[in-house]
Amino acid sequence: MATDASDHPLLDLTLSMRVGTRRPSPGEESQSCAKSLQVLRQQTAEQIRLAAAENAYAERMREVTRMEMELAEKEYARARLVWERAREEVKKVERMKEMATGRINSACLEITCHSCHQRFRP
Which end of the chain, N or C, is surrounded by fewer C-beta atoms within 10 Å? Predict the structure, then answer.
């Protein structure tokens, strides 16, 4: 028994093929443009958000660097003061050494021998 396609109205096996691109209707085209525009706006907003975040980070780094520079300048000034004080102390000690050496030399001249009563000469 042969069956005809008209006997079964639910089965529609007709295939269609089209070569080339399908042209969207004016309504679909405007929807596509609107979607593209929305995606572009979202991308732009994300780029602006990232740029603002990078700007805030750069500003914070500038502030941290400025504070570190101020701290380094203060430490340098403190170190310079310590060095100058140490240099003054060295000069003071050298003067004291010279004075002590002079006293020792003069004290040596005053030392006399008990047996011959002659002055000691270094």
Answer: N
